[in-house]
Amino acid sequence: MKTRIVKRSVVITGSGKCAREIGNFNGDRTNEPCGRRAFLLVLVMLVIALASLATLSFSRSMLISNESSQISSHQLQARMCAESGVQSARLLLSYTPDQRLANGGTWMNPQFQARNVVSSPFPERRGNFSVIAPSFDQSGSYNDIRYG
């Protein structure tokens, strides 16, 4: 029986945690190279940064969509309050002259001043309408506004 003696030479390069073995005859590496681990760290940090930016972009988009839908609903509510004022004036004008006088008339009628259409405990959510017209003085110039 022949005995074979194999010399193993191991050279360690680097120092500390980044040291690696060169010349391991088993074919497996015990330590990964330091550069590969650093690349993976940078890659993971880049992916996290991109995911954070995507999340920020999505949340801003949702906030802008929410604000635009609120603005649209407030515009629609204002339009409907104005339409209520128009319909109220049309109703008064559809009456006979005697019925119009019984309901306050068409000149300085307080029924057309700040009529509440949408009531709410919050002042910014209330909906009112007023029907106004210019008021003239004795000489025919604009004096003030009148309701009705």
What number of domains?
1
Structural class determined from secondary elements: alpha+beta
Radius of gyration (Å): 42 Å
* Secondary-structure element pattern, one letter each: EEHHEEEE
What is the topology, as strand order, of the major beta sheet?
1-2
Task: Supply database-style keywords.
6 strands, rod-shaped, single chain, alpha+beta, two-stranded antiparallel sheet, 148 residues, two-stranded antiparallel ribbon
Question: Could you please describe the fold and organization of this structure?
Answer:
The chain is α+β, with helices and mostly antiparallel strands and 148 residues long. The chain has one domain (11-147). Helix content is 45%, strand content 16%. The protein is built from two helices and six strands, in the order E-E-H-H-E-E-E-E. The protein has helices at residues 34-94, 97-102; strands spanning 11-13, 20-22, 115-118, 127-129, 132-136, 142-147. Strands 1-2 form a two-stranded antiparallel sheet. A two-stranded antiparallel sheet has the order 3-4. It has a two-stranded antiparallel sheet with strand order 5-6. It is rod-shaped and about 135 Å long. The termini are far apart. The model has no long low-confidence stretch (mean pLDDT 83).
What layout of secondary structure does this protein have?
Blueprint: E1 11-13, E2 20-22, H1 34-94, H2 97-102, E3 115-118, E4 127-129, E5 132-136, E6 142-147
